[in-house]
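My current task is to audit a protein record that another person submitted. I have pasted the whole thing underneath without changing anything:
***
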Amino acid sequence: MKICRFNEGRLGIVEGDTVRDVTDILDILPTARYPLPVFDPMIARLADICAEAERRGGGATHALADVTLLSPVANPGKLVAAPVNYQAHLDEAIADEATFSRAHVRKIQETGLFLKATSSMIGVGSPIQLAHPDRRTDHEIELAVVIGRDCYRASAADALSYVAGYTIGLDITIRGPEERSLRKSLDTYSVLGPWLVTADEIGDPSGRELLLTVDGEVRQRANTRDLIMDVPALIAFASSYYTLRPGDVIFTGTPEGVGPILPGQRMDVSIDGIGAFSIDVGQK
């Protein structure tokens, strides 16, 4: 099932070129009061949401082209990201000393993971707003994994059972010597979308083609089979350090071909089995 959030926080099921509005199903979620939960309540009840959507059917429909798509996850507790997790990207970073700081060019097993601020997250219906036009800012397409239940010290063998679904991530990055979490956490620098595809539809997330173009020019084309640390290994690695909660997102790393983006450009992005979207680049 493809689940989206659209317009003013409405919930929809994507069916071809239409969105079926199932916002009323959110009434099954518990009413929250302070202190608020540190996870995403909808993702925690995703199985119930999907079952109820199947049972009820119906609902008003909208043309997909007429709605504004929001991030499919509203309240992630953590955005976890994997650096240099494709060998070809590591190779290009090592070769380009002028762009990639030496302190940040190491294998993922040596570097570890990093966190992006949740305030950097947007959906594909909003433009990316570049905040430091005097510095190079790059695109990075990534498979994004959404955790569905509490996960601590998971084994790689069991890791996929903790996944709620998958979406496309853009990890927008200012180049420079500062820590990754700073350079990748500006407002609008974590794009998720266009929707969440439930884990049962994806199955094994390896073997997924990724494609990113800028104004029609192919910049990144790769396959998730080439991840250095695959999705199960990433979940096991991350959960060995902190508990993953429902709605937490893991950006699995970007392949080779990262390059600069400028205000006025448009990116077209796709991952096999998930979907595709276009997003504009503006300036804050």
Summary: The chain has a mean pLDDT of 94. The chain has seven helices and 18 strands. The chain has two domains: 2-66, 79-283.
